[in-house]
Design a protein that fits this description.
Layout (H helix, E strand, L loop, with lengths): L4 H4 L3 H22 L1 H10 L20 H6 L13 E7 L7 E6 H17 L7 E4 L7 H13 L2 E3 L6 H10 L4 E4 L1 H14 L10 E5 L5 H11 L2 E8 L4 E6 L7 E3 L4 E6 L13 E7 L10 E7 L1 E2 L11 E2 L4 E2 L4 E3 L2 E3 L1 H9 L4 E12 L2 E10 L1 H4 L3 H19 L4 E5 L14 E3 L5
Parallel strand pairs: 3-4, 3-5, 5-6, 6-7, 18-21, 19-20
Antiparallel strand pairs: 1-2, 7-8, 8-9, 9-14, 10-11, 11-12, 12-15, 13-14, 16-17, 18-19
Helix pairs in contact: 2-3, 5-6, 8-9, 10-12
Bound molecules: 5'-O-[hydroxy(phenylacetyl)phosphoryl]adenosine.
Length: 433
């Protein structure tokens, strides 16, 4: 089923016309309402009238996460504060989180985008979706939640955690759709197998999985164990949240909601646009966003774009799976973590050296983060309970800044490996296959 045939099946030329018209309006809006963009454009000698077609996007400046941090919290907002009806936030590299404000219309575009995803997955109003993304500042929970309601299926706002109760509800309520991270889906499968729940008691048929990278092998694994069709859903809070792109029944790339989010691929080093089909960094322009519109936002996600028509009938550009990042952001249990955040927490405690290492592993489909950190010489000889208290203090501070728990391991001074060049702060032992 196609939710919005007009928008999802437009000819490429019609789409370009629409995108061009929307880009013109967007640039005019940010020029007049966002001093940050006005200054940038003026410095580059660009006036809103210079934008005529979507191709003119190439002359516009890029926006980065750093720009969001520098303008924390609402410096990039393009509307009066009273127009903002919802705020989400995700982690910044250090210090300030990235805050995003939505107008009522932004929320309605978001719902519509999720409804398009669900239709592409073959969902109907008969379905009941359990949403096991985190509810709260993370966009996964509320994003999927209102999308499912808008689509007209039923939603069970499960949120993350409490696996036993979740499995019970999947069974007792006859839940047919599951929205969560792919690693959590595998964890659910494992627990269900351990509990020995008979297959016929489980009615799951559709999975909307994203928020972290996953692979074709993981798809096969999840599909065979949970007996459902597993589909990708991609997005990022700066642009909207989940639903920027989604797979369809062909499972061959994710359709970008292109009438709202214009994609480009650039070379992360030179920032030059790359020829069609080449792999590079994904950049989005929010063509219709009111609250916090972004021009050429660098996602740091690496992938390529597929422009050929899809067999499902949608004409929108598809993106391949994310194959990596052009920065050092980690995604641990669905939460974005920057090594620099860990560093800033460590540096706040005078007992530690600025020598640390992050070790990330995945056991039973659950990510674990271990932070090894050197204690200063003068504290190392302290009694054991002082060291335990210090370890607990760091673990507590990390939890409150990162939003996930980390195992802290205090090591002797001068034991972590020093490197001559770029230090290896992260050892990611997870193998996604
Ligand atoms: O993760 C939004 C989301 C929630 C998407 C639920 C899908 C499902 P952020 O916390 O801002 O937003 O993190 C965005 O997560 O730049 C990617 O690096 C990564 N990511 C999100 N979806 C996928 C996916 C949400 N399907 C960052 N595959 C993005 C690979 C993904 N990576």
């Amino acid at each position: 089923m196609i939710w919005n045939k007009t928008k999802e099946c437009m000819s490429r030329e019609e789409m370009r016309q629409l995108q061009g018209a929307r880009l013109r309006k967007l640039v005019d809006r940010v020029y007049h309402n966002v001093p940050f963009y006005r200054d940038k454009l003026q410095k580059m000698g660009i006036m809103p009238d210079d934008i005529r077609t979507i191709d003119d996007i190439k002359i516009l400046p890029f926006t980065t996460k750093q720009d969001l941090r520098d303008n924390y919290p609402f410096g990039l907002t393009a509307v009066q504060p009273t127009e903002i009806v919802r705020v989400h936030a995700s982690s910044g590299t250090t210090g300030n989180p990235t805050v995003v404000g939505y107008t009522r219309r932004d929320l309605s575009v978001w719902q519509e985008s999720i409804a398009r995803c669900l239709a592409a997955y073959g969902a109907t109003r008969e379905d009941t979706f359990s949403v096991a993304y985190g509810y709260g500042l993370f966009t996964g929970g509320l994003g999927l939640h209102y999308g499912v309601e808008h689509f007209g299926a039923a939603v069970v706002p499960m949120s993350s955690g409490n696996t036993d109760k979740h499995i019970r509800l999947i069974r007792d309520l006859g839940i047919t759709g599951l929205a969560c991270t792919p690693s959590y889906a595998l964890h659910l499968a494992e627990v269900m197998e351990k509990q020995g729940i008979p297959e016929e008691k489980i009615k799951l048929r559709i999975g909307a999985f994203g928020g972290e990278p996953w692979t074709e092998n993981m798809r096969k694994n999840i599909e065979s164990r949970l007996k459902l069709q597993a589909y990708n859903i991609y997005g990022l809070s700066e642009i909207m949240g989940p639903g920027v792109s989604h797979e369809c029944e062909c499972k061959n790339g994710s359709h970008i909601i292109e009438d709202h989010f214009f994609p480009e691929i650039i070379d992360p080093e030179t920032c030059q646009p790359l020829p069609e089909g080449e792999q590079g960094e994904l950049v989005f322009t929010t063509l219709t966003k009111e609250g916090m519109p972004l021009i050429r936002y660098r996602t740091k996600d690496l992938c390529s774009l597929i422009y050929s028509p899809c067999e499902c009938g949608r004409t929108s550009v598809r993106m391949t799976r994310i194959v990596g990042r052009s920065d050092d952001m980690l995604i641990i249990r669905g939460i974005n973590v920057f090594p620099s955040q860990v560093e800033s927490v460590i540096l706040q405690l005078p007992e530690f050296e600025p020598q640390y290492q992050l070790i990330v592993t995945r056991e039973n489909n659950r990510d674990n983060l271990e932070v090894q950190v050197e204690v200063r010489e003068e504290y190392y000889s302290d009694e054991i309970n002082k060291l335990v208290a210090l370890k607990n203090r760091l673990a507590h501070n990390l939890q409150s800044v990162l939003g996930i728990s980390a195992e802290v391991k205090i090591v002797e001074p001068q034991t972590l490996q020093r490197s001559v060049g770029k230090s290896q702060r992260v050892i990611d032992k997870r193998v996604l296959d």
